[in-house]
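=== Structural record ===
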Amino acid sequence: MKSKIADRAYFLIKKKKYKKAKEFLLNNKVKISHDADALAMLSFADIFLKDFYGAEELARKALREDSFCFNAMLAKAYVSLNNGHRENALREYFRILDLDPENRIARDNIERIRFLTNNARGDEINPRAYLLGKKKLSLSRFIVLLPIAFILTFASYITIDRIYPKIKYVLLDKDQKELREKLENVYLFEGLEDGKIPESAKSPTYSPREVAEMFDKAKNNMRSASVNEAVMIINGALKSDINEYLKERFRVLKQFVIAPDYNIFRESPDYLTVVENYDLYNGGYVKWKADVNTISQTNIDGIPKKKARLLIYDTADKNIAGVADLIVNVTVTLEPKNYIEVYGKILGYDFKQKSIQLEGQIIKHLPKKK
């Protein structure tokens, strides 16, 4: 911040001395009357002191002095969020990212809003994270925590090595149950529970009611384990001309997609269907039979991974329908000419290689074809 007064107030707010910060700023009332950063800090202090009306007025005043004052935008967005207007809050955060794509606080706040429950209150929308960002770990505290982290890591290794194989399936079932319960709190926009759909949901192609029906249909398909149908609806919405806020809600819903049970999964599309509609199936699941062609190494987010080039069979299991590149995330021995069944998640389509990109969930060796 350019202003020394604003810097001092920010320091006091970080130390949780909100009343002292407000008194300090008001004692410099004349000096800060045209100081956008200082006015934004006064808005911050009012938010922590729960004077949201005053905070909003100060944020607006700061933006009149400097329309690019990010702290004022953060304050204005938080007040909107506290008042239940999440769409307005998201607009402010997206505006910050338009001006400063590297703004971590705005980016993190968008992620936080994704997972807020309806009518969130208290700690769920604690202003410190939304205004000040994530708390940074000091070096001295890190050194103190290092031995504890080592002990916990070693204990975790022993637990995973000896106990986890016996309970992993129970854990998976529990995770799936929790995800399905959380799905109940994923909403499209406020007011839907009362049958009121805002006009902001309107698009050139879809009416607000049609957008709501798409969202509900995708949720119902996820509950009934028709994952690929849900994924296609969500991807279709993301390709459509609905507004960015609604697309964000569909992206949130997609994060709750749960991999179908391998043993009962029957809705796998064939290879050619996926190639023709790869953008709609992105994030969906397939179960295909294939020959392993080659094995190589690749690097995913800095982590070395095994990669297999597969020759995928058609539905009749007679002819090769096309090529897929499989990221091997499971412990399995693969060699060229192995005949396998792969259950995997679709990551996309590589136009250069003309291959479907898959992430392996389960890989089974099959008897060699005669």
